[in-house]
Design goal:
This protein has 657 residues and is of the alpha+beta class. The chain is built from 9 helices and 45 strands.
Length: 657
Amino acid sequence: MPSQLFADQPAFTDEFRLDECSFKSSGRNPYFILEPGYQLILEGEERSNFVRLEITVLDETATIAGVNTRVVTEVEYVDNQLVEISRNFFALCEPGNSIFYFGEEVDTYQDGEIVGHQGSWKAGENGARPGLMMPGNAQLEAKYFQEIAPGVALDRAEIVSLTEVVVTPAGVFVEALKTEETTPLEPEAREFKFYAPGIGLIQDSSLKLVEFSNAWSSTPVSPTAETVSLTVPKGIVLQVALDREVRIRKVGQPIHGLLVEALYAFDQEVVPVGSEVLGRITEIQGPSRKRRVWAALNMNFTPVRKVQVEFDEMVLPDGKRLPIKTAVTPGSGRTLQLVTSIDSEKKRTAKDAASDKMKEAIREAKRKWEATMKQVKEPGKAHRLKRFGLAQLPARPQYLDAGTVYFAELQEPLDFGRKPLPPPLLAAGDPAPLPCRLLAHAQLLTPLNSATTPPEAPVEAILVQPLFADDGRLLLPQGTRVNGSVVEARPARRFGRSGKLRIAFRELIPLGGMEQTVAAANLEGVQSGAEENVRLDVEGEARSTAPKRRYLSTGIAVALAVAAHKDSDVEDGVSSGGTDASEGIAGGAAGFRLPGMVVGALVPAQPLALGMGIYGASRTAYSSFVARGREVVFPKGTAMEIGFALRGNCEESAKAE
């Protein structure tokens, strides 16, 4: 269990069973080589400075906290000037082959002279204890402290991926392990590191491996692998549309849907659009007492129940059945539409007009979505009329409509084997250069709601489809990350004023994890519920708008209320209290639909008819014009079309022109 020192960070392990370890000063972990003579050299740019990092395993040991550890030096140069030398102490724990970190001695340099030792610590001194540098059996989402030196170093790591593909000057590495490193001492700081099997550290933030050697060891080091795993990772959302209407009857009832977005692994489609997805109803929740009462007042004795579903099997085009484990994300289970920025009636500027290629890509994305949804069996006019009639009854059946789209998040990865790496990657050592402008099809990882999401909240999305250059070369594989934040969020307010959201994406993290600065990134398309009536402007602002039919529905309700009152029944200022069937039916229709019409026809009382009519008209007017407007809600898994302008690439393109 974590100690009291780290009680505020219980998810990160800080205590290890070191008494069960038999420590060795030499050996190999799948991602960390601790053999004398092994060396890694990484280079790159940081803050416009050229940085070189030399990591060398020395033929030297040191006893730290009673353990014989191996000394590993890290020598760092900035613009060819020595800035730091650190002597790090590691030991390998058997059994398990986990690498533990026992401390470091740091010398910082300025103008060739030592000026400080900031960051130095050793296990066993001043409350410091050994940390875990690399587990012997790396598990996804494992969290652990690497350095445990209170007040000096509290670095911690989380394994966020085991299937990265990283392109470096030293080669292409697949199945790389990726860690996200943070520290409680600097809550805003985070770094990403990548480790290749049999190699070790291949990327540290912007520094990439340029050279490695193992001159003193007889065990060879493989420079690269030439195949890549076709794996759809855990956390990807399957979008499943019910292809037939389902009348809700019981828990366990089967449901059937179609995949409306293809699944990709790296650069290859592994499950096409239209593949069958099978599931079942897992829970039917009854309405609350308050909701039952309100429904009864509106002559509805079977209010809508919440229905939970899950999907557990896919049928591939060749007939193979693939078991899947999913969890439906909150907020899904709606009829969706793809709203795009070019749907806006707002005039586009000259700058917009110059982006014809981008606009055509947006139109093509919408055409694909509409073509996909046509596979769903839409009910005919007769069926819709029947459903409308059933909806007027005081006791009515409940259905899951055909076309309802569920977001089913994978709880376990899907493995589709391996494939050779694309030849351009193996030959070039660098991915194809990104164009100035591109449109990426992404999936939202951060759920957003205009009512609850604050401004400046971080937003993360992931490319679910690879992006290719015009010549067929891979630009961005599936799994590329997109980072941004909420620029503006306004919740819905009274008098029908709806919510709005504006998102800005600023970083694109393509192959190898190098962050690409974005000059501009607009939300060009987004899925939204058909009933939310979301509009997307040319600047990427999503706003829910009030439907125009509210004027018609309110007008009809008022007209029915007026029809429920008959002036001829008033004589000498005194109402006779009677009414004919038509007036009762009109008042009942305004207030309680079909049940009200029946009551109005059977009970010839004008006060009753007028009361039902006024109630119906006021309720419709309130809900249409006075009540709170709709929120903008994007659940996790929402599909987005994001248009990017890449800063450096656009500058080079302009110079070339």
